[in-house]
Amino acid sequence: MAVGVLLTVVGCGSGGDGTPRTASGSLEQLAAEAGCRPDVRTDAAELRQATCENGARRYVLVTFTNARGQAEWLDEANDYGGTYLVGGSSWVAVGDADDITALRDRLGGTVVDAAGRHGGHHGPHEG
Length: 127
Known about the structure:
The protein is built from three helices and seven strands; from the N terminus they run E-H-E-E-E-H-E-E-H-E. It is of the alpha+beta class. The chain starts with 6 loop residues before the first strand and ends in a 13-residue tail after the last strand.
């Protein structure tokens, strides 16, 4: 049974609000721009995933080889709720809302709040 992605856009990428243009590149390049060292956990043909720490901030970075892979990943992740930073059609970062907001200042992208069934924040987003 296919489940539609229910994502609420919380912020936008590059615009007049001072947010940087959305970053692109390999997992290692994105981690470098985020100011962290990636600990690669998944290195598959269709995606690469790493945990990343920058001081007290912690998040997961995932890069995709195509937009379809990213869309499918987001569809699955939607079931769990949470806050995501989506970079075009090539990467996603996952973390708590404060960490994702700080990461957006470095990588650009769009912050989304997934309306998951297993947790996550369902109320209005303040920011």
